[in-house]
């Protein structure tokens, strides 16, 4: 498929026409437009849920989850290095999970896992970031292998085809601003409510829920609501808070998700919400021929060989 030379890929909108969301959430109102939007993403998250099959697969195959943990650990390091949006990391893990749901993956081939991790993170960055590192520059933070850009691009195509080109998916971040806005109406700033702090803390927790497979059992809206409650200073789950979000929020599921956060979250002694999750890991002994991405030229190059090869 060719792209016409006359095709203009730049936005033609004026800066004044672009609407941005400020910390006060002035763009969120209770009119019909906002209600229709939030209902649409509630409907979309139900259509996209595949957690039961994925969670069952992970619980049967602990080796798969261990490899997943290592992949997420690397993604988080790159996320911190480039200061990516939290949405980017969450989306990259979403791609990885959905890919693994549809395909069997060799357990012992660490280079394949590294390649998949790079491809998923690259795709997510292209979806969310305004400035995306080159594919070689993305392979940092002590990776075991270094791949040529064309190899990563081939894996990107395989991932997109496996996901049926559905890269836009509902995540807890789609609900986060709306829920924080609703909670801010219940807890005014004059009583110590800080919107920016709550958003930052909640985002931090959300990206770390990726490390615990049991969170796959919950809808994105449920995770968002539970995390927002957790990120508030008093950590109290009551019907008033649960009722302020939206009528489509399942209160019982939010309570269960909140308890899961409570069991897995470790808060450092300094009181900051630099959260660390205990990775409850539950992997795979299969043989799949990945001819789509593998050729003699595409074999991964161990880092120590790259360093020795100079310009190669």
**SSE run:** HHHHHHEHHHHHHEEEH
Helix % is 40-55%
Spatial extent as radius of gyration: 21 Å
SS-derived structural category: mainly alpha
Spatial strand sequence of the major β-sheet: 1-4
Number of helices: 13
Would you report the number of β strands? 4
First-last Cα distance = 32 Å
Principal-axis shape? globular
Strand content: under 5%
Average pLDDT figure: 75
Mind describing the biggest β-sheet? 2 strands, antiparallel
Which stretches are poorly predicted, pLDDT < 50 over at least 5 residues? 1-27, 29-33, 268-296, 303-312
| Assembly state of the chains shown | single chain
Describe the structure.
The strands form 2 sheets. A two-stranded antiparallel sheet has the order 1-4. Strands 2-3 form a two-stranded antiparallel ribbon. It starts with 31 loop residues before the first helix and ends with a helix. Helices cover 55% and strands 3% of the residues. α5 packs across α7. The protein is mainly α. The protein is globular. It contains 13 helices and 4 strands.
């Amino acid at each position: 498929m060719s792209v016409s030379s006359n095709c203009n890929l730049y936005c033609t909108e004026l800066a004044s026409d672009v609407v941005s969301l400020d910390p006060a959430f002035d763009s969120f109102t209770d009119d019909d437009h906002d209600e229709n939007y939030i209902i649409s993403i509630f409907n979309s998250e139900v259509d996209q849920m595949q957690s039961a099959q994925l969670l069952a697969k992970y619980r049967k195959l602990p080796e798969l989850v261990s490899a997943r943990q290592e992949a997420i650990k690397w993604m988080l390091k790159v996320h911190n290095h480039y200061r990516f949006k939290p949405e980017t990391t969450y989306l990259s893990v979403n791609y990885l999970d959905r890919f693994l749901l549809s395909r069997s993956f060799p357990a012992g081939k660490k280079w394949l896992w590294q390649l998949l991790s790079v491809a998923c993170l690259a795709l997510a960055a292209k979806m969310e970031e305004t400035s995306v590192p080159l594919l070689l520059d993305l392979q940092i933070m002590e990776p075991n292998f270094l791949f040529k850009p064309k190899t990563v691009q081939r894996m990107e195509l395989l991932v997109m085809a496996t996901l049926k080109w559905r890269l836009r998916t509902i995540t807890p971040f789609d609900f986060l601003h709306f829920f924080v806005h609703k909670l801010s109406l219940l807890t005014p700033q004059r009583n110590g409510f800080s919107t920016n702090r709550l958003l930052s803390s909640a985002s931090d927790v959300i990206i770390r829920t990726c490390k615990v497979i049991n969170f796959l059992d919950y809808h994105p809206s449920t995770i968002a609501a539970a995390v927002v409650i957790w990120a508030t200073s008093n950590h109290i789950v009551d019907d008033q808070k649960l009722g302020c979000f939206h009528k489509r929020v399942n209160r019982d599921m939010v309570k269960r998700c909140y308890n899961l956060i409570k069991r897995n979250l470790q808060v450092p002694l300094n009181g900051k919400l630099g959260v660390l999750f205990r990775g409850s890991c539950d992997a795979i002994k299969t043989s799949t021929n990945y001819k789509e991405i593998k050729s003699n030229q595409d074999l991964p190059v161990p880092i120590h060989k790259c360093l020795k090869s100079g310009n190669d």
